[in-house]
Amino acid sequence: MDWNVILVSVVTLMVAGYLYVKKKFQYWEERGIPYVKPEFPFGILKDMGKTKHTSQVFTAAYNELKGKNSFGGIYFFTKPVVLPTDVELLKNIFVKDFQYFHDRGIYVNEKDDPLSGHLFALSGQRWRNLRNKLSPTFTSGKMKMMHSTIIAVAKEFQNYLEPIAQKNQELEIKDVLSRFTTDVIGNCAFGIECNSLKEPDTEFRQIGKLVFQFTPLEFLRVFFLAVFQDLGRNLKMKINKPQVSEFFMRLLKETTEYREQNKIKRNDFLDLLLQIKNTGKLEGDDTDLGKMSFEELAAQTFLFFIAGFETSSSTMTFALYELAQHQDIQDKAREEIHRVLEKHNGEYSYEACMEMKYVDQVINETLRKHPIVDSLIRVCGQDYAVPGTKHIIEKGTMVMIPVYGIQHDPEIYPDPEKFDPDRFTEENVKNRHPYAWIPFGEGPRICVGMRFGVMQTRVGLAHLLQKYRVKTCPKTPIPLQLDPSTTVMSPKGGMWLKLEKI
């Protein structure tokens, strides 16, 4: 064996690799577009998931690039990525020029990982077809059907908190709220009583935790699959963890077979999907939506679960964190809850909950300051001439929208770290650019489950604030630190607060 030949070959490959990456890193400079200097070989991803949360990485890039152009450039590994810094450009991306940016570019491998084929990730015509099928399941009429189920779980939640509040105990509220939303989603999506409020170690709850926890290596793997999708599919790589996929596929197979064999009907999301799966229609509507395969049904139910329990529980967590520090705002929200309930004979009817406008302002300001999904992805489907510039966003280029950075921009939201629900009075909303608040996205790809998520959050907060005062305690994380290992915004070490019975 000639070691000299081997050594020369290795060195040559290393040099060639270095020169290749260096050339790739000249993409934005060659086009005269401001960019964040990349670090070899990760681009801007080096510290993501390890020491920094995604929101911190993209906000730093936004602040560095803002004011230099309507967009700037960043790198995921060697892949050039557009980072918009102008809300007018966002309007074009989300709505005006949606035909260029209708795909999210998220990794999908339905053959090896059926749960990856959900609405959030699909692209092109498949996304359009599925969106048309699912949109009728999230109308206000369908939300009313599920409202009573949410109220039933919320009352259990309210009762669960009573002995804790009576003892003035400190509690990790994030975990309790996650168990509440797990029980809501379990009932509304699967028709299953998870009982995670009473039994926190149920399999449902453990799997829910697993979905959002990532090691730094797993974080890099997610971005690798977003950048090198064809390679990932050729290697049969999966986005979902095996135990997560096995649990949901088994659960849905058993549940759907039981319902179909016993002709069981429930007013929940799974029932609506089964109607589409078997008939291509929803009861009471002659619109032909087209039938759905079991794998498609499983993927959409999985999405409903992961999008519904974590986002709502985190939103409530951050809302209570802010309310504990702002007792005047908390009192104002509680007064509204009592006033509305008195008007509706003490009943949490759908109409009563919709009248809680100030509670909604609290939720909106929470989502402004703590957007659970801190960034949104789009992919340019064809060469796009950026209005007002000489620049072209080339076909296939990923666009990373820095939601957190935009919603903390002091030029849009003065004193952005201040928690102020009055930012969301009708007058103030009208006076602000409509694309400066985008926690659910916007345009045709806006979150299809937004109504459900807000309804669940509103009901949970109202039930808690009606009977309990939330306060800070020595363990409350002030200032807030984000957990870098989660794909959504989540407090590091949980959220400790104190409840006091009113």
Report on this structure.
This protein is α+β, with helices and mostly antiparallel strands and 502 residues long. The protein has 19 helices and nine strands. Strands 1-2-7-4 form a four-stranded mixed beta sheet. Strand 1 and strand 2 form a beta hairpin. Helix 6 runs antiparallel to helix 7, helix 6 runs parallel beside helix 19 and helix 11 packs across helix 13. The radius of gyration is 24 Å and the shape is globular. The relative contact order is 0.15.
Summarize the structure.
The protein is an alpha+beta fold and 502 residues long. It is 52% helix and 7% strand. Helix 6 (140-166) packs antiparallel against helix 7, helix 13 runs parallel beside helix 19 (450-467) and helix 14 (327-343) runs antiparallel to helix 16 (357-369).
Q: What topology does this entry show?
A:
Blueprint (H helix, E strand, L loop, with lengths): L2 H22 L2 H4 L23 H12 L5 E6 L2 E6 L2 H10 L27 H11 L5 H27 L3 E3 H18 L12 H10 L3 H12 L1 H6 L7 H21 L6 H11 L14 H32 L1 H17 L6 H5 L2 H13 L6 E4 L4 E2 L6 E2 L4 E4 L1 H5 L18 H5 L19 H18 E4 L24 E6 L1
Parallel strand pairs: 2-7
Antiparallel strand pairs: 1-2, 3-9, 4-7, 5-6, 8-9
